[in-house]
Every structure is written in C-alpha cells, then in structure tokens.
Design goal:
It contains five helices and ten strands; from the N terminus they run αβαβββαβββββαβα. By secondary structure, it is of the alpha+beta class. The two termini are about 15 Å apart.
C-alpha cells in the first residue's frame, strides 16, 4: 500500500469530517532554537497570514506587536521576550501539494499545529502534511510528535505507529 493511502486509511477520522474541532499536532523540541527555526520555516512557506489579528505580546515593551514587525517573533518567545502566540498561515505547500490553513501556536519548546478538519483533506494532502512534519522534526534530532492532550490512547498510538511507518518509508 502506498504511504499516502496507508496514512489516510489509518488516520482519515482525524482529518476527513469537520466536527468543529481544531485538533493539534505538537512538534516538541529539546532545542528551543528549533522552535524558532520551525516557525520561520512555516512563515517563509506560507503565502499569507490568515489570522485577523496576527499579534504577539511583547514582554519587553509590555504591548501587542504585529507578528511580522520583527524578523522572527518565535525567537522572541524562545528568549522569553514575548509571550506564546498563535497565527493561522495559508498557502503552505509540501512536496508541491497545498495544505489547508494551518494554525501555529508558538511555545519556547514546541509548535502546536492546528487545522480545520473536512474539506481540503485527502490522502495526498495528509501525506504532504506528514512531509511538513518531517521537515519540522528534522530541525532537532531529539524532537518528537504528539497529539493534543485528551486524545484517546488508541488514537495517539495509531498516530505514532503511522508516524513511525512514514519515517521508515521515507528513510528506507
């Protein structure tokens, strides 16, 4: 079975039907600089910021500032100069495949990616999303992927098995 078909067969219920939730896939980093690099990679790949108010809280200036008013707002989160922030990015492609809008919640050691389930997701897009996750995890050899808190252990285990299978097929 092709990788894209395998991913879709196993994980379609996390992407296929819009139930109103915004599930999170968390890229956990040991090296905080990788979080800043990952955000910058996503921001560079995105055609635009879709969020209505793309701001972050500056702990230094004690005020809101536009995300793109600085070279890399995530680097400020990593250094403690800014509070964690969330933006929605549109137009990201991976392997030439467009991925639906991705929300990015930036923490000092994590990027939590959220997405709207439903329209726009299929086997090819899910495989492209996994390619994007592979690029993000490659920034820190000690990184890991997890799903948001509260996901059943069965679903979390299935996701981890698919992630391991995806990685082995891409390496092998």
């Amino acid at each position: 079975m092709e990788t894209a078909d395998l991913l879709w067969t196993e994980l379609h219920n996390l992407f296929e039907q819009d139930d109103g939730s915004l599930p999170e896939v968390r890229v956990n980093y040991v090296d905080g600089n990788a979080a800043a690099s990952g955000y910058q990679m996503l921001r560079n790949e995105a055609v635009k910021i879709v969020s209505e108010r793309p701001y972050f809280w500056s702990n230094v200036r004690n005020q809101e500032e536009a995300v793109d008013s600085v070279p890399n707002a995530a680097a400020l989160v990593v250094s403690g100069e800014a509070a964690p922030f969330h933006v929605v990015l549109g137009g990201i492609q991976s392997g030439g495949v467009a991925i639906p809008h991705i929300g990015v919640l930036v923490f000092p050691d994590q990027l939590a990616l959220d997405y709207r389930m439903g329209r726009g997701w299929n086997a090819e897009v899910l495989s492209a999303f996994f390619g994007l996750l592979a690029n993000l995890t490659a920034l820190d050899e000690d990184s890991s992927l997890t799903l948001e808190d509260g996901v059943s252990s069965d679903i979390a285990d299935k996701f981890q098995r698919c992630w391991s299978e995806y990685q082995s097929r891409k390496v092998g």
